[in-house]
Every structure is written in C-alpha cells, then in structure tokens.
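Re: that chain you flagged

S.,

Sorry for the slow reply, it's been a week of failed gels. I finally had a moment to sit down with the sequence you sent. For the record, here it is as I used it:
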Amino acid sequence: MADYQFGSGSGEALFDGDLNIVKSKKTYKIRHVYHKEELIATLRASDGVLVLGREGARRLHGYLPYPQNRVIVNEEAEPFAVEGKSIFAKFIIDCDSDIRASEEVLIVNSKDELLAFGKSILCGPEMMDFNTGQAVKN
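Prediction finished late last night. Pasting the structure tokens below so you have them in one place:
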C-alpha cells in the first residue's frame, strides 16, 4: 500500500523495526501503525489511504529523494507550517510536479528540512500556477 501511495520502497522505509499494529475492534481491519509510542500512519477506513503521523513523515522524508512528494515553502511560511496551519499557494516556491490533489505530502523549506506534513488541496502544477488560495491543509 505504501509503495503504491508514496513510491517503490516506501513501505520498507515506513514500516521498518518493531511495530505495533492497532486493529479496529469492530471490523478487525488495521487502523494505526506505531513504532513504540510514535504514530507512523493511520489507515483511513473510508478509502484505504495511509495518513502519515509525525514519525511516518520523518521516515518518508529520510527515504524519498528530493523533491519527490515535497512542497517547498518560502521563509515567510515556515512558522505557519511548523504550527500546523494551512499553506497558501503564494508561499510555495516549488513542489513535486507529480503531486495529485488530496495526496499526503511533506512540507519542507528550501534546505529540505521537514517542517510539516499534510494533505494537498491542489495538484503540483496547480500549486505553481496559482498565486493565491489554499494549497495544503495540515
């Protein structure tokens, strides 16, 4: 699932080590994956998409080559990203052109330091075309 969503080899990068898998008590399907007490990802029941936790975003950032799955924001937007606020397209200086709308993305600065992670509202080319509007929701 992770390889399909984030690219080949992402599953091994995300789910390496001693994992704790939490299943739904009602459906017995996987809901959350933890490493010790750090959330790696949640499997969204409605569509089977992996939603990253902080540890998952950190692992994925360390594995994926720059600029894959990244939204690069300017210095002005960095504090907002770190606080978990939405990023507007006018603050995006670059992004992976393969990003699709509603996809889980990594939000980084120009030095490729991980600031946050979230769900894209726009696809990659749209992020670069628009200079106003909300592009990523944390």
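What I noticed first: The chain has a mean pLDDT of 93.

Talk soon,
D.
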